[in-house]
Amino acid sequence: MIRMVIFDMAGTTVNENNVVYKTLMRAINERQFDFTLEEVLSEGAGMEKLQAIRSILASKQIADEVLANDIFKTFKKLLKTAYEDLDVTEQNNATPLFAELKKKGISVALNTGYDRQTAEGLIGKIGWQKATHYDELITASDVEKNRPNPDMILLAMKNRAIEHPDQVVKVGDSAIDIEEGQNAGCLFSIGITTGAQTREQLLSAAPDFVIDNLMQLLAIINGFEN
In the predicted model, what is the mean pLDDT of the chain? Predict the structure, then answer.
């Protein structure tokens, strides 16, 4: 029996036009780099954002913790400004899908590489409310170890009193989302093509399924339950 689905936010359930990764690119490139958005997404999608900076720099054989932290401070300042006038919407069918899952008695959890303040700001712009639209929000600042470690999923399970990961499904738009679900032992780890990475990049993580629209998840769940 599936008891909970855990969704990534940006690119999976939230459409913020990649503003976070565009801002991350800007913060890094202000230090005389020339990373493209494609490179930033390839190296950092789905990660806690300081770790994403480390990973992006490492792609050019740079391991400089002082530099990474300085970029992170700049990123947070730039992001605050970027969010002031940002038009944030849900990804197609997110709210209807949440409602269908809740009708089935399946908990809806959101998890993200953002910190809690950023995540709650996005949710507030969309208008989602806890217990009405979703049941749990777990962010990078809530756990010690971030993706691909399973800590965020395990915390969501603990909060919902779910002991067995084979009662949990993870959905995300990056390979690291898929790896997170696999490391937690989830029943299914599912990629979705609406966000950061291509189908080919998602397939590199060996997901159980790759979908193109959130509503396709219902067919997977119904097929398993039947």
Answer: 95
